[in-house]
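Lay summary. Proteins are chains of building blocks that fold into shapes, and those shapes determine what they do. In this project we predict the shape from the chain. Here is one chain we studied, written as its sequence of building blocks.
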Amino acid sequence: MLNIICEVSKYLIIIFMVLYTVKCFSILGSKDDKDKRKQLNKQIVYVFVIHFLCYLTMYLREGSLKLLIFYGVQIFVAVLYMVLFHSIYKESSRLLTNNTAFLLLIGYTMLTRLDFNLAIKQFIFATAALTITAFIPYIMSRWRNLRNMGVFYGIAGIVLLLTVFIPGLGYENYGSRNWIRIGSLSLQPMEFVKILFVFFVACMLVKANTFMDIMANAVISAIFMLVLVLEKDLGAAVIFYITYVCMVYLATSRPIFLIGGIGLGVGAVVMAATLFKDTLFYHVMVRVEAWKDPFKFIDTGGYQVSQSLFAIGTGGYMGTGLYMGKADYIPVSESDFIFSAICEEMGVVFGLCLILMMLSVYISFANIAMKVRQPFYKYAAFGYSILFIIQTLLNLGGVTKFIPSTGVTLPLVSYGVSSVTSTLVIFAIIQGVYVIHNKEVIKHEKEKERIRKEQAAINARAGVYGQGKGASPQQ
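And here is the predicted shape, written in a compact code that computers can read:
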């Protein structure tokens, strides 16, 4: 009986995941507010049904009471977040709040399966981050000086990146010196610096009036990437570089910056691979060799990718079911390779839906960037949309052998205090931009209505005056 319930639950999870993903895109295309609200409410139902079925399966497999308690606490926080956030910020995007909560719940579910202690830790820090970042839209709507702090963003970002070189504070992990340790807590400064970096570039582009202004901006941005290269964190350097090139192209609309940026990037990669492959980027070359033929180096550098491919292939379209696979055999399955674990036990169909959900988040970000009128917020929202999708593609490309592994996490799903916190900050900033835009639209509509009423009153008085003036004395 237990196996039957778990098997039925597995297929129901996939069905509801497909329905949720379809809603992500139908909501984006919906013009009717009433229909959109109905679809958003259905999404919430799908979220909680999927989450319930996942924890029901895990409870039936494990029989642990702590799973039920953890499930209940997650539901409480998710409901509280979705209800309160939209109640406080009525002009916010409910689709983004739904996706935020659901991505976090997917991460908690898989982490519970892999390492319950890590799931608890992720939940605590994510809940704290949700609470703190809830104030960001309010701060953005009140504090309009954000667009004038470009120098601060630049200096603070570079200084924060350099902290990894402080003896006793920074340390090396998986070949890259991009971590700092504060007590028992390990953090990646890069995760927070990318927020400052986008704000810095947006500020500088707003003020850039000449080609030389753009070049000065490019030099300072290059310092960010140079520090990342010295840290040997090439995954982050790629994210920063692509984000910068795309933001400059958006601001200038000049193809030369896009073409030149691509050419310069390719040239830098070729030079690094030629001159520094045996010194500074030795660990990267190991990953490249493993990417070319992971099964040839399965006992060494190719073990991660090989296990990832085995896991995805073993799961098939429908997955083996939670606790029925060997997801914990994949190295770093809780962070960099969590997508492989999801595909093995929850199915490739579930994994494809997760990719499409990430794509819908990117489209939501980009839509907000296109709608907003203020250049600073437009550039910032666009920068964060590029940053989000590039990080997602680098993670998915690494675990599926599409590109060499870069060591970046899957946003909101992978384990990582720095990653989940910085991503929630980005989501809150995008919500803040959307709230500011909608308030401006409402204010503009009210002003148009006021002018229309005033004009109607003037016309009415003019009509009455005209009739009185044209009336005959006999009348």
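What the prediction tells us: The first strand starts at residue 170 and ends at 173.
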